[in-house]
Amino acid sequence: MNQTSRMAGATARPVRIAVFASGGGTNLQALLEHFQGAAAETARVVLVVSDREDAGALDRAERAGVASRVVPVRGRDEDDVARDTLAALSDAEVDLVALAGYLRLVPAEVVRRYRDRILNIHPALLPAFGGKGMYGARVHAAVIEAGCRISGATIHVVDEEYDRGAILLQWPVPVLADDSPEQLAARVLRVEHRIYPLTVEAVARGLATGEAVRPLSLPDAVAFGLVDADGPDEAEVRRALGLL
């Protein structure tokens, strides 16, 4: 019996989420707050994993009363990283993983064990502006340099390559004429904080009921780029994810 089958049914416990983060953890914070509220009946963040001992995400985990684990990556064999990562996930009985500013490639063995149960959010509209080394300010600078007038955030399933897994949801964000990378980053990040927790909730609900992970739809106005610079409101995102 697979993990999804064990969880399906009316008596299933809340889905247990691990969040991987390398930096300050603002998307982690959005997830913590979401799943400590009304969504706690659906899923809970039970573990934070970082590759860095000084990551601000670990402080956020401690303040929230969530267990954390540091799994160093630099200079280590992938098999050792995979072993330690899987041990951490197993100890916490994790069902679903959400990457939130995690800058390392997830070991192939971890991807295999958690196939279709690892999500990532990327600060651009993939497949453009993705791949190894494309993170943070580098992404936004490349978008502006290319002359794009629309950027956005992409939530996708993680596979063995950087930013190549199946896309679940994209939300466009306008690029303004006088944008700096920092200004665009702030606008995209606001959208990330709104769409990521709700998308993780939608996937967790599907996992709990045995439904396959599938692409999620956007309202027509959003899909055609008629977007507000302030980003979507919660009801709009919930409608897109089928949570209303």
What class would the helix/strand composition place it in? alpha/beta
Strand content: 15-25%
Largest sheet geometry: 7 strands, mixed
Care to count the β-strands? Answer: 7
Helical fraction: 25-40%
Average pLDDT = 90
Q: Low-confidence spans: pLDDT under 50, at least 5 residues? A: none
> What general form does the structure show?
globular
Cα(first) to Cα(last) distance is 31 Å
Count of individual helical segments:
9
Task: Walk across the major sheet and give the strand order.
Answer: 3-2-1-4-5-6-7
Radius of gyration: 17 Å
Description:
The chain is α/β, with parallel strands linked by helices and 244 residues long. The protein contains 9 helices and 7 strands. Helix 2 runs parallel beside helix 3 and helix 6 crosses helix 7. It is globular. The mean pLDDT is 90.
What's the short version?
39% of the residues lie in helices and 18% in strands. It contains nine helices and seven strands; from the N terminus they run αβαβαβαβαβαββααα. It has helices at residues 3-7, 26-35, 56-64, 78-91, 108-113, 137-145, 181-209, 220-223, 234-241; strands at 15-20, 43-50, 67-70, 96-99, 118-122, 150-157, 167-174.
What is the strand and helix layout of this fold?
Blueprint (H helix, E strand, L loop, with lengths): L2 H5 L7 E6 L5 H10 L7 E8 L5 H9 L2 E4 L7 H14 L4 E4 L8 H6 L4 E5 L14 H9 L4 E8 L9 E8 L6 H29 L10 H4 L10 H8 L3
Parallel strand pairs: 1-2, 1-4, 2-3, 4-5
Antiparallel strand pairs: 5-6, 6-7
What are the defining features of this structure?
globular; 18% strand; 7-stranded mixed β-sheet; 244 residues; alpha/beta; 9 helices
